């Protein structure tokens, strides 16, 4: 395994002059795409096939000799033909040679926000982007998703290659979500529940270490039959139901009767409200131990959040938040 990763036993190596290197500096131009997860030998294979380096072994040797080589980022690079291996490594470390062609999915974004980001990049036509988002069945969504993309676009950076289409990139995002759920051995029958809870966790708190607490609050509230009676009462879902992605719900928002209003409807909403991170998913799979039924963020700048199982304490905590809003005019509107 180690030998293969280092390129010692690459099938392509037999076709090159073993260990040979160009003197450089090279000439002409080659476009190389480095994908996430590419190791030194895989990068060397691509450079060798494009005649950027003379042998995979020479590139691997230069890669191992450069301490910074491990930080080579995925992307599309413009390099010279017939460079020395050491120069090729240096060129890959120079952002001036890299085209920043990544579609970013930020944890907590909705699929509409991801779509807007793709449109803003001006890499695809608006028609192709719309077509891809309007045909979720073609993106490899599992049946349990009910053709709803929300929650299934795994956060991360997705490189745009010359062959990329909006459909191929979205398919990669969906596949990454499915792969992660399978890696965590989540039964397919639980995928929607896990993603739905994780999306709420993602939108409710700032700090990663508080996510397992929020996941526990969700479980406690759904199971409760005496105090909250299975009502989640999450602001994030209320906002999603009226088409908002942030802020504080207005009274009109709270009273809007839609399936995502968890102040009016018991249990979970019908699906995810955003694309959750790995941390949020893991929090749902491993919730903290506790009997909390309430929490409130009392400082929007620091994200400080207070948890309790006592309604009176919760009421006092809400007053702390209201005081923060009073001290910071315009921040809670």
UniProtKB/TrEMBL annotation:
Annotated catalysed reactions: a peptidoglycan chain = a peptidoglycan chain with N-acetyl-1,6-anhydromuramyl-[peptide] at the reducing end + a peptidoglycan chain with N-acetylglucosamine at the non-reducing end
CDD domains from the UniProt entry: MltG_like
Xref: InterPro entries: MLTG-like
EC class: lyase
Domain of life: Bacteria
Pfam families in UniProt: YceG
A molecular function (GO) term: lytic endotransglycosylase activity
EC number: 4.2.2.29
Keyword Cell wall biogenesis/degradation: yes
Entry GO CC: plasma membrane
Alphabetic keyword roster: Cell membrane, Cell wall biogenesis/degradation, Lyase, Membrane, Transmembrane, Transmembrane helix
Signal peptide: none
Keyword Transport applies: no
Example of a GO biological process term: cell wall organization
Residues the record marks as site: Important for catalytic activity: 204
Family: Belongs to the transglycosylase MltG family.
Function: Functions as a peptidoglycan terminase that cleaves nascent peptidoglycan strands endolytically to terminate their elongation.
This protein's name: Endolytic murein transglycosylase
Originating organism: Scrofimicrobium canadense
Gene assigned in the entry: mltG
